[in-house]
Structures are given as structure tokens and as C-alpha cells.
Amino acid sequence: MENKFYKEMKKELELLKKNGRYKKLRFLKSPLSGHAKLEEFDDVIIMCSNNYLGLANKPEIIEAGIKALKKYGTGAASVRFICGTFDIHRKLEERVADFLQTEACLTYMSCMDANMAVIPTLLDEGDGLVSDELNHASIIDGCRLVKKGIEKRIYNHRDLSSLEKKLKELKGCKNILVVTDGVFSMEGDIAPLSGIIKLTKRYEALIMVDDSHGIGVLGKTGRGTIEYYDLMGKIDIITGTFGKALGGAGGGFVAAKKEIRDMLIQNSRFSLFSNSIPPVLAAIGIASIDYLESDPELVVSLRKKIKHLRNKLKENNIKPLEGESAIIPIIVGETSIAIKIAQEMLQNEVYVTGFGFPVVPEGEARIRLQVSDALSYEDIDKAVDKISKVFSVLSVKGKIPN
Questions:
Q1: Are the C-beta atoms of residues 275 and 109 closer than 8 Å to each other?
Q2: Buried b (16+ CB within 10 A) or exposed e, 21-56
Q3: Which residues are 238's β-sheet partners?
């Protein structure tokens, strides 16, 4: 007799399929670049990757990983404070700190781990925490992990008046931490960091920025949202990833003052009870930063392609959300419609992803296009042509939420 737990789960999964909300994993059969071979669909144009600078398949970066794998092996089979730290970890952390102009850095298996590590480690009873309502799930989960006795507030998305109201409510707290994404992953918009930092100074709060989608994309030299606002060296805590623009392989980090790094080493559960990143990922991260610094024109090239894609969409009467990042969302309404569009696009040799509830609010399902410098202008034009045709067939134009 089948356990009732599995019966209920099967019903729930069948309902998702019936409603057109079922997510299906797609399997790549080749390295990821502007194109890739996808199981069942062969060669497709990749419009859904965080590979913003096109570094995921660069021969120089692959070679750096191979050399590290041969030198260090697969890893130390342990957490860092026992025997899991290699000298290449220190080199990577020093490289990130130098790149982002912070005193120190500590790496984690992912930026999700980094966000869930730093927030509960730094805050204690009597402290306050303020978070943007559209922050990434990893920030939300990090906020959920804080101890009892910490006052938590959520402010309206990118709304400085709302943020100040919440800061006033927390004026009696010992310490206050304001947390925001640099670039919001589902909206593609940018946090108003200049205004946020003025408020954090006024209310003696710390500021933490997850710049996973900003680094490699924004700023004159690709140093992200902080450079975009000319705030290098002025942000208390920066978290980020090597799983997007910086190589695309994986790993995350916290860049901050030395005292914060030291406290994370002492008390962060995601460091104390989880292995260090494999040396091969550390080498890929170093090589990716080196590559970006040696060729800042990559960032210029990427921005031109972002602008080109936005213009082409508008020429075809498709209205994406406004923004300057490499994330270009098109709101289509219902989750089932977003998933249907993504399926149809694959039939047209373009790989996009439909996002719906619970990833985004009900009724604001979207197709999220992402630009990589690995794409040619011909790729972009072809993708927009296919998107336009699919939208026309499905009577979708893209719409701006109220």
C-alpha cells in the first residue's frame, strides 16, 4: 500500500502539469556559450544564462581550472578550519578584495550560502534588520535564520521613503543592517545605492549589497553596482558569486572588513560545517577576474548588445521592463503562459525561461531574457524575430505591471 505522503505529492505534481505550471529540467550536451547543444533540441541560442561576459567556455579560463585540478586534486575533503583551506583559496580571496576594494574576503560554496551565512552571524539580540521586499530568495532565507530578539522590517521595493520609515522604527536597536540586491534578478532594475547609503549613515546602520547580477555588467570596469554609483570602498558588505559573470562555474563570497571576515570564520555555520570551494573553482574565479581586468572592453561590448536587444524588442512592439542591467524581463501575466512561451521558443531554437509563481508574484509571470557577450548581433536579431512570432501566435505583447 502506497504511503499517503507520496499519494498527495503525486496529486500535487499532476495538478502542476494540468495547470501548465510544471517545470522541466533541460540537459545541455555541450559547453555553454552564445549557443549550446540541448537534449531533444540540438543547437539553440542561449538567452537565459547568467554568463554575462561569455567566460564560461573561454579556453584560458578552462586551462586555469585544469592546471589547478592537476596541482591540488579535487579538494581537501573537509571544512576549512580542519584541513580544507588551500593557498589558492587565500589567493582568490585576496584577489576579490583587491578587485572590489575591500579589506578582506571569505569564500563559500555559493552566494546563497554566503548570504545565509553573513546575516545571522553578524546580528544578535537587540539588533535590527531591514530588507528590500524583492530581494533574492537567499537574502530572504538569511533573514529567516537570525536569532530571536532581532527586529526585522521589509521596505517597499527601491523606495527610500519606505526605507527611512523602517529605519526610524528601529532607532532603538543596538546595530542595524540594511540588505539589498545590487541588481534585482527578476526585475533587472538597480538598487538606489546612493540614497540608501545616505540613509544608513544618517541612522548609523550598516549596508550589505548582493551584487551577483551587477559584477561584470555595471560600472566602468565591470566592478558592479557599487562602481556604477561611484561608491567603491564605501559599502560595508558585498556578497557575490563566481557562478555568473565571473566564470559561470560556482562559488560565492563575502567581501568586507577584516573583522567581519574573522567573525565569519569563527561563527558562520556555512563555513564551519561545509567544505571549502574546490580548488578548480578558485582557479576559475581568479582567472575570470584577471581576464576581465585585462579586457574591460568586454563590459562595453556587453552593454552595446543589451541596448541592441532592448531596441529590437521595442521595434517589434514588445515592452520589456525598463533597466540598464543584462536582465530584460517581459511580463506576460499567467505562469502557464510563460511556460508555454518558453516551450514554443525552444521549438524555434531559442532557449529562454518562463518564471511564474512562487518565484514572482501571481499574475506577473514573465519571460526573462539575459544578454551574454558570447551572443552575436545576428543571434540577438534571430532571437527577437522568433520571440515576436511566438508572441504573435499566442497573442502576447508584454505588459507593464500596475
A1: yes
A2: beeeebeeeeebbbbbebeebeebbbbbbbbbbbbb
A3: 209, 255
Q: Which range, 257-266, 361-370, 384-393, is most confident?
A: 257-266
Do 236 and 385 lie in one domain? The reply is no
Residue 159 lies in a domain: yes
List, as one string, the DSSP characters of 78-143: SBIIIII--HHHHHHHHHHHHHHT-SEEEEES-HHHHHHHHHHHH--TT-EEEEETT--HHHHHHH
Whether the CA torsion 226, 211, 248, 88 is positive or negative: it is positive
Report the distance separating Cα 225 and Cα 181, nearest Å.
9
DSSP code of residue 400: -
The residues assigned a catalytic role are: 185, 213, 244
Q: Give residue 402's identity as a one-letter amino acid code.
A: N
Beta strands 35-38 and 42-46, pairing class:
antiparallel
**Averaged pLDDT score across all residues of the chain:** 95
The angle at the Cα of 255, spanning 250 to 261, to the nearest 5 degrees, equals: 105
DSSP 276: P
Residue type at position 216 = G
Provide the residue range defining the domain that includes 370.
19-48+296-393
User: Is the model's pLDDT at 107 over the cut of 70?
Assistant: yes
Total count of domains within the chain:
2
Q: What is the pTM of this model?
A: 0.95
Strand partners, 79: 275
Q: Flag whether pLDDT at 199 surpasses 90.
A: yes
> How far apart (Å, rounded) are the C-alpha atoms in residues 81 and 267?
11
In the three-class reduction of DSSP (H, G, I as helix; E, B as strand; rest coil), residue 43 is classed as strand
